[in-house]
Amino acid sequence: MAWNEPGNNGKDRDPWGNNGKNQGPPDLDEMLRKVSRRFGGLFGGGKSGGGDVGKFGLSIALVVAVVVWVVSGFYTIREAERGVVLRFGEYSHNVDPGLRWKPTFIDKVIPVDVESVRSLPASGFMLTQDENVVRVEMDVQYRVVDPQQYLFSVTNADESLSQATDSALRHVVGHTRMDEVLTTGREKVRQDTWQVIDSIIEPYHMGLQIVDVNFLPARPPEEVKDAFDDAISAQEDEQRFIREAEAYAREVEPKARGQVKRLEQEAEGYKSQIVLKAQGEVARFNELLPQYQAAPELTRDRIYLETMEELYQQTNKVVVDMPAGNNSMIYLPLDKLSGKANAVQQPARAAGTAAVEPAQPSNEGANSTPTPLRGGDRFSTGRN
After folding, report:
1. Which residues have C-beta within 8 Å of that of residue 74, sequence separation ≥ 6?
2. Mean pLDDT of the chain
3. Cβ–Cβ under 8 Å, residues 46 and 69
4. DSSP 8-state assignment for residue 47
């Protein structure tokens, strides 16, 4: 049963001991006066003889406050960080890594990582110079080199760099053909984008330094991806064929140059041979000319005989005219005789001599022994 319900035999069972009195909200002024009297007694007020105790308590409170203020001023800057000190909200100076102290409520220290390399991705569908759409992805790596400029030159240096990267990438892709973005011109796009980013952020003094720009593989929209894959495959085949042709050229060219050199040397040798032979003929003619002028007939016969000798050395058959009335002909197997004669003449020629052994007639090729030549017999040389 509730304490204030009827039937409690007229007894007031109020748990707060109000005994049936209707009290309103507590009086705040009265509460403040009670608190003031209590603390006034502690610090020397209200009671007689409490002045010394109040001064001692105040001193203790001041000492504790000073100790807390001093201890709260210690802080640590890590090795990879630099601290930016703000004094009453205004930039004061930078602090190096280590254990430091600052006056609390006067200085504020903001640590900034200056050694870690940060990564900023950028991507999107972009329009190329030849009015094609490609999806381009790029990753910019950078780090902080000036903490003060990084914090206060712009509102948000990281966001500003992201916007500059997107603007530079769209500018470079918009001035590049699609096949260059997808294949051969990727390195040029990367270098140009890097340069444009540097030119954009330089006037703002963001305190950032671009470490590297990674141009990830670009790709066309999914609707035309198969066609572009075929085009890229064809371009790769073209480059492969070019490299194979260059390798073949490097292999064949030295051989061709060697053959050219050999032909040139052979031509020079042939030229020298012909010139020397012609000079020898001229010298021989100059030697024969006085002899011919002294005895024309004799010289002419000797030249004729020497010429016929050279001609007969190149044939292996000789026909001998017989006296008038004799219809028989003598056949001399000079092909076999010349073989024996050459076998005898080769050692002599090797020794530098001109000795020639006469060949003995052979019985082969005829049934009877050849008849010796008489004084009236002569060779069929065409000259009577």
Report:
1. 99, 100, 101
2. 77
3. no
4. S
State whether the Cα torsion 61-66-69-70 is positive or negative.
negative
For the chain, the farthest-separated pair of C-alpha atoms sits apart, in whole angstroms, at: 198
β-sheet bridge partners, residue 112: 82
Q: What residue has token string 């000798």?
A: 309
What single-letter DSSP state applies at residue 350?
H
Encode pLDDT of 181-195 as tens digits: 877 888 899 999 999
Residue 169 neighbours by CB under 8 Å, 6+ apart: 122, 126, 136, 138, 193
Using one digit for the tens of pLDDT, what is the confidence trace for 316-358? Answer: 666 666 666 666 666 666 666 666 656 655 654 554 443 334 4
Angle in degrees, 0-180, between the axes of helices 51-71 and 28-42, rounded to the nearest 10 = 90
Residue with tokens 């105040």: 58
DSSP 8-state assignment for residue 115:
S
Query: pTM of the prediction?
Result: 0.47
Provide, for the chain, the percentages of residues in helix, strand and coil under a 3-state DSSP scheme, each rounded to the nearest 5.
50, 20, 35
